[in-house]
Amino acid sequence: MLPILPFVFGGAIGTSVGFALKKYYDENEDEIYEKLDRGFTVYR
């Protein structure tokens, strides 16, 4: 059981971070696209 614990904790942390990032993305989708677009125009 002990060798499996890092995978369990890693999965739980990954799932939590994934949900947090999705919530942030859903709330700020327009701002994210605007910043990405501005960033890409700098490199053109």
The largest sheet is:
none
Chain-averaged pLDDT: 88
Structural class determined from secondary elements: mainly alpha
Number of beta strands:
0
Shape: elongated
What is the first-to-last residue Cα distance?
53 Å
Tell me the β content: under 5%
Proportion of residues in helical segments: over 70%
Low-confidence region ranges = none
Write up this protein:
The chain is mainly α. Helices cover 86% and strands 0% of the residues. It is built from two helices and no strands. The chain is elongated. It starts with a helix and ends with a helix.
Short description:
About 85% of the residues lie in helices and about 0% in strands. The chain has two helices and no strands. The mean pLDDT is about 90.
SSE order and pairing:
Blueprint: H1 5-27, H2 29-43
Please name the defining characteristics of this protein.
about 45 residues; single chain; mainly alpha; elongated
